[in-house]
Amino acid sequence: MDGRSLTPLLSGGPTPTNWRTALLSENPGLNAKPGHKLVRTEDHAYIEWEGSFTEMYDMKADPHQLDGTVSPEEESAAEYLAARLDALKDCEGESCRVAEEAESAP
Predict the structure, then answer these.
(1) Per-residue confidence at 87, pLDDT binned at 50, 70, 90?
(2) Fewer CB within 10 Å: C terminus or N terminus of the chain?
């Protein structure tokens, strides 16, 4: 993900609207541990592990990330977060700003 200045946050003024509502984390995996890609929003953590295994956590209902299964009711949120993860992992410049500032999952 392209870098972004923290000046708006450190200036003491109000946080800009929709400033980075998602954060991408990538780990290539080391020492026989599988790699993963994660998108974290205020409400959810969505993780894609090597080998096509996915997890999603509702951070308000499950802040300790104990149940990563996706229920049928959460399927649309998981699909949205998977698309957002794809947008963030391949973005450059302004397309990163668009992907970072998207609305939360349904």
Answers:
(1) confident
(2) C
CA-closest candidate to residue 22, choices 75, 87, 70, 67:
87
What's the confidence (pLDDT) of residue 17?
66
Q: Which two tokens stand for residue 68?
A: 């990563």
| The two three-digit tokens of residue 103, written as one number | 């609305």
Q: Tell me how crowded residue 12 is: count the other CB atoms within 10 A of its CB.
A: 5
CA separation for the pair 99, 92 (Å, rounded): 10
pTM, whole model, 2 decimals? Answer: 0.77
* Number of C-beta neighbours around residue 84 at 10 A: 23
Structure token digits, residue 32: 């026989």
Residue 25 exposure: Cα atoms within 13 Å on the Cβ side: 11
Length of the chain: 106
